[in-house]
Amino acid sequence: MAEAVIGVDIGTQSTKAVLVRLDGTILAQASRSYAPDTPRPNWAEQHPDVWVDAVESCLAEIAQLGTAVDIRGICVSSLYGGSGIPVDAEVKPLHPCLIWMDRRAERQVGWVKQNVDLGHLGDITGNGVDSYYGFTKMMWLRDERPEVWARTAWLLPPNAYVIHRLTDEIAVDHSSAGNIGGIYDIKARTWSQEMLQVLGIPSRLMPERLVDPTAIVGGLTQAASRRLGLAEGIPVMAGGVDAAVATFAAGVVAPGHHVAMIGTSMCWGYIAPTADAAQGLISMPYVVGTAQDLYVFGGAGTAGASVSWFREEFCQAEIAAGRETGRDPHAILEEAAKDVPPGSHGVVFLPYLMGERSPVWDGQASGAFVGLNLFHTRAHLYRAVLEGVTFALRHNMEAGAKGSAALEDRLIVVGGAAKSDLWMQIVADVTGYPVWTIKEDVEAALGAARLAALGAGLIRRDGDDTWITLIERAAPDPACKSRYDEVFKVYAALYPTLKDSMHALAKLRGGLE
C-alpha cells in the first residue's frame, strides 16, 4: 500500500486539504468556503468553530477518497490568527479570533508608541508595532473584553486550536508565535518575558510548548478518528503561518529566494538569517531550518480582497453575463482590461481597504481611486485595482531589498492571482522580475503536506524536488516597465500626501473606537 500524507491549510475565505503521495503526486483534494465577519469598519473576526467544521469536513472527504493508501501524517497550516483564540481551561472558545485583517487596536498601538522603547522592542522581536500585530489585539481584548480576559487560560493560533481538537494536545509552532510580534524573542526562539511584562500580557496565557512546524504535536485521538474516518494515532504536525508554508511549497529553502503570495491579502517574503525591524517588514522563524532561518516579509492587507470588493460592488453586469454564459466574471473583466494601456490612462488605485500593512503601517489608511475622468470605464478601474495591488507588492520589495541579501533573479507568485495571465504580466512589468508560478493549484496545503512528510521522516529537505512544477508565466516588457516606473512614483507619493485626509475621514466614519 502506497504511503501518503495530508496537508491542510486554513485560509481567510476557505480551507483546503490535499492527499499527497511521497513523490508529490496529488491523489485527492477537498475544500470548504466561508467568510470573515466584519461587524464594524476595520474589524475582522472569525469564530474558530467555522475553521474546525471546515477542516473536519475536508479531512472526512479525503478519508473517503484515500482508502487505498497508508496515511502517515497530517499537517495543518493556517492564516495568521492575530490575537489568537481566547479559550478557557477546558479549551472552549470564549470570543471570536481577531484575525490579521482586523485593525481595531489603534488605541493600544498609541499606548505602545508612547510607553515602550520601540527600538528595544524591535531588537528583541524583529518586529514593530501596528494594529496588524497580534500582541496589540491581545491588549484590546484585555482592555475592551475584561470578562473574556478574566476567563482566558490560553491564546491559541488557529492551527494550534484545530490541532488540539484533533489530538487533545496544546502546542504553538515558532512561525505562528513569531508572527504575533511584540512578545516573541526572535533570537532566543521563545516568549519574551520582558516584553510580556512591559505590555501587560500575563505569560500564563502563552502555551509553554513551542515546537518546530515539522514537529509531531500528537496522534489523532480515538474520538477524532471516529468523526473523520481516519486511523487513530496518525501523527499530526504543528504546521505554521500560511504565507511561509506557501513559500516552502514553492521550493524556497535558501537565502535570497523570494515569493509573493497573492490571495485575499498579499505577502512577499524571502529567507534571511537575521531580522531588521527598521525596514518595516515582518519577521518570524521559517517553517524549515526553524532554528537558524527567518521568513522576512511585507504585505498588503487587501489584495485579492480588493479585486473581489470591486467585482461585487461595481460589476453586476459582468456577474450577470457570467451566470448566463458560465464564465468567470473576472475573465470577462480581464478581456476589457487587456485593452487598457499600462497606467490605466492616469488612474491609480490605493488598495488600503482595511488600513495598510508594510511599509505604510497605518490602520487608518484608506483606499482611493485618484485621477478619475469621465473618459474612464470599469475596465480602467479594474486594471487600476490590479496595478494598485502590484504597486503595493513593489513597495514592499523595495523596502525588503534594503535589508536582504541579493535576491534571486526571478519572482515566484503563488495564490489565486496566479490564475490570471493579465495580472502576472502586470507583476512582471511593475517589478521588473520574470514571473514564475506553480503548476499545482494547492500552494499552502501542498506545503503543509510536505511538512508532514518531513516531520514523519519520509522525505529529506535537501532531496530532489518532485513535488512542484514551476512554470515561467511572464517576462518584463521594457516599455511597460518604464511606464510603470513613472506611475509607481505617483503611487508612492500619494499616501504621504493623503495621510491627514485619510485620518480625518477615519474619525468621521467612526473607525476609531
List descriptors.
513 residues; alpha+beta; Nucleotidyltransferase, domain 5; seven-stranded mixed sheet; six-stranded mixed sheet; 17 helices; 20% strand
What can you tell me about this protein's structure?
The chain is an alpha+beta fold. Helices cover 39% and strands 20% of the residues. The chain contains 17 helices and 23 strands. The chain has a seven-stranded mixed beta sheet with strand order 17-18-16-15-21-22-23. Strand 15 (258-262) and strand 16 (266-272) form a beta hairpin. This is FGGY-family carbohydrate kinase. Belongs to the FGGY kinase family. InterPro entries: ATPase_NBD, Carb_kinase_FGGY, Carb_kinase_FGGY_CS, FGGY_C, FGGY_Carb_Kinase, FGGY_N. Residues 5-248 form the Carbohydrate kinase FGGY N-terminal domain.
Concise synopsis of the structure shown:
The chain is 39% helix and 20% strand. It has helices at 48-65, 106-115, 118-125, 134-144, 146-151, 158-167, 174-179, 193-199, 222-228, 242-249, 304-314, 316-325, 329-337, 378-401, 421-431, 443-455, 478-508, and strands at 2-10, 14-21, 26-33, 45-46, 69-78, 85-87, 97-98, 154-156, 172-173, 184-185, 190-191, 210-211, 216-219, 235-237, 258-262, 266-272, 282-285, 294-300, 348-350, 368-370, 411-414, 435-438, 470-474. Helix 11 packs antiparallel against helix 14.
- Using only C-alpha atoms, the radius of gyration works out to 22 Å
Low-confidence stretches: none
Do you know the CATH topology of the domain at 300-411 and 419-433 and 472-508?
Nucleotidyltransferase, domain 5
Query: Could you give the count of β-strands?
Result: 23
Tell me the major beta sheet.
7 strands, mixed
Distance between the termini: 58 Å
Question: For this structure, what is the CATH class of the domain at 300-411 and 419-433 and 472-508?
Answer: Alpha Beta
Coarse morphology:
globular
Write out the CATH superfamily name of the domain at 300-411 and 419-433 and 472-508.
Answer: ATPase, nucleotide binding domain
Keywords: Kinase, Transferase
Pfam families: FGGY_C, FGGY_N
GO biological process, one term: carbohydrate metabolic process
Protein name: FGGY-family carbohydrate kinase
